[in-house]
Structure formats: C-alpha cells, structure tokens
Amino acid sequence: MYDAEGEYNKNVRISQKDVATLERVCHYAAELGSVFEIEQFPKQKEALTVRLKGDLSTRVNFFSCVQPALIRKFSDVFGRIYEGGTIAVSGLRRVGIQELVDIQTSSGTFIAEGIVTHNCYAERMAKRLKAMGQPNYVNGFKLTMHEHVLEKPLEWKTPQVIFVNSMSDLFHKDVPLEFIQRVFDVMKRAHWHQFQVLTKRSERLAELSPYLEWTDNIWMGVSVENKDYVYRIDDLRKTGAKIKFLSVEPLLGPLPKMNLKGINWVIVGGESGPGARPLEREWVTGVRDQCLKARVPFFFKQWGGVQKKKAGRELEGRTWNEMPANINLVKA
Fold first, then answer.
1. Residue 212's closest CA among 237, 233, 184, 234?
2. Is the peptide bond before 68 cis (omega within 30 degrees of 0)?
3. Which residues does residue 4 pair with via DSSP β-bridges, in sequence order?
4. Do residues 238 and 204 lie in contact, with contact meaning Cβ atoms separated by under 8 Å?
5. Is 183 helix (H, G, I), strand (E, B) or coil?
6. CB 135 within 8 A of CB 169
7. I want to staple 34 with a disulfide (CB 3.0 to 4.6 A). Which of 29, 48, 83, 324 is the partner?
8. Where are the beta strands (DSSP E) in the chain?
9. Mean pLDDT over residues 33-38, rounded?
10. How far is CA 286 from CA 117, 168, 293, in A?
C-alpha cells in the first residue's frame, strides 16, 4: 500500500492503476476504521488516487494499524520523534486547539506536543500521587502552575542544590513568560541555593533567554537522548546561563562528534524502570572521551535497567563524579 517511492505530506494518498485493487484497499481500510475517498485529477490518466479522510488522529491510527510494513515512514509522520521497534497505539488524546496528539503506546512511549517520552517517570509518579490524594496532583499529569509554593526556596535557609520542576518542563509552551520570570526572580533572591533547570523545549528556551535574568546560581541544561536532539545544544549555547549542562539521560544511542564548546557539564545515565531500554558501554565511553578531550566535567549517573541499584554506576573500574568547579553555597 505504501511502497519505497511513497512519501508523507500531511495527507495519505494511495495511487493505483488497477481500480479493483483500490477498491480492495478502501474495503480493508474500512475494516480498520479508516475511510478513503476517491480523488479525480483532470491530468491523471494512468492511475486513480484515494485519500484518507480525517485529521491527524485518523492518520496516526492508520499508520499504526498497517505496521510493520510502514514503520519506516513514522519519521515522516511524526518528525524526529520516534526511533525503535514496532509499536501499537492503545489510546489517543487531543491536546489544545492545535493539531497535536498525545499517543500512549503499548511499549510505554507517548508523544506529547511533539516531544517523545518512553517510560516517563513523571507521568507514572503523577498518577500515583493523584491516586494517593496528594493535593498538588489533583490534576494528575496535566500542566499545573503551583503559585503557593513559588517562594518556598526563600524559606530554606540551609544552602541546597535544587532541581527545578522535576515533574514537568518550565519552558512548556503553556507556561507564560511572566510566570517563568517570577521563577527566575525567586532563584535570584535565593542566592544561597544553586538551581538546576532542565528542558526538552530548547527552542523556547533560546527564544525567551533574553527576557530572563541569569544569575550565577542558575544552571541551565537540555536533554540530549540521541543524535536527533543534538540541535538542543546549539539552542542552549544561545542562552545567558553562566553554567550550561547536558543531561544525556537516558542515553539511547551513540553521540559522536558533539560540539561541547561553551558546555560546562555533561551528565550521562541509562534508562531505568519497567521496560527500560539497554545502554551500550560504547555509547557511554564515547561521550566520556569527548568530555575528556574538551575538558568538560563528566558525571556518570547510572547504568539503569530494571534493577538499577544492582547495575551500579561504575565505568571502567571507577565512578565519575566530576562537576563544574564554581559551586558556591553559602548560608542565607
């Protein structure tokens, strides 16, 4: 149905000279819940074309149902967001007013607003906390801004290293700039703490950076899981952060020839939890060797896996705990 010459351009069309074959395609597609309609093109004499009716969720369903023959076309449909084996869609959830869909698959992968996540600990934890009646998670995994805890760090007088917004992403498209600026203001006033902010939305980070005040105690990082996301390093370099770091976790493939200019720290780790994908030693040493060559501190967090404690965090007979040199925590 979709041969080597096929391509995807936001519409699914199938052309065929044999009308009977197209009729069978329409029949079988209907059995899968997909409806095709015949298109007539005045200049098209040799073949007829049928087009899939419906929106993005309809197209996602169609591409999922005709796997594995079409798995190679997933990158055309979803962009640079999925690499892996065959998956099967078990549920769809429309997001906002744009043509964006959250996809929950049988493998644990879901695609949210263009960001792919597999075995997301935050989603699992949010559902668990909601079930436990935790008041901050009454909305589950939906984006929620908690105004009442915004200034909590100012109450903590003992210096701490604080990982900001570990259950979400501060640069999510629906977090207003004004709210992000308030977060940065609290971090500035709580100067005795050291804050680590991590995002997958590197484009928005670069866009908003000029409107944020980057004090020395605010470290900014981006996630780089495989070669498809190295562009985030360039976005990070555009920011005014004094300390810029990469979270290469979970590392899902080799990362050769990274440009580490202007990067102050690299953290590497394997995926953990149910269905964790394996981490190859060569991927880790490849990143480590680039850090050594560029003189960038390298921190190896874990091998991961289902039993991450048993797997440990030693690499070639030692632990790697390097960090940037300018951590300066003083009491308020």
1. 184
2. yes
3. none
4. no
5. helix
6. no
7. 29
8. 13-16, 36-39, 48-52, 89-94, 101-105, 109-112, 115-118, 161-164, 194-199, 218-223, 243-248, 265-269, 298-302
9. 79
10. 24, 29, 11
Number of Cβ within a 10 Å radius of residue 239: 19
Question: How far is C-alpha 296 from the geometric centre of its chain's CA atoms?
Answer: 24
Beta strand pairing status for 265-269 and 298-302? parallel
Read off the tokens for 189. Answer: 């006033």
Q: Per-domain residue ranges for the chain?
A: 13-118, 150-311
Encode pLDDT of 155-209 as tens digits. Answer: 999 999 998 877 678 998 888 999 999 999 999 999 999 999 999 999 999 999 9
Backbone phi, psi, residue 116, to 5°: -90, 140
Instruction: Give exposure, 252-288, as e/b (b: 16+ Cβ within 10 Å).
Output: beebeebebeebbbbbbbbbbbeebbebeeebbebbb
Question: For domain 150-311, which architecture applies?
Answer: Alpha-Beta Barrel (3.20)
pTM: 0.60
Q: For position 178, what pLDDT does the model report?
A: 93
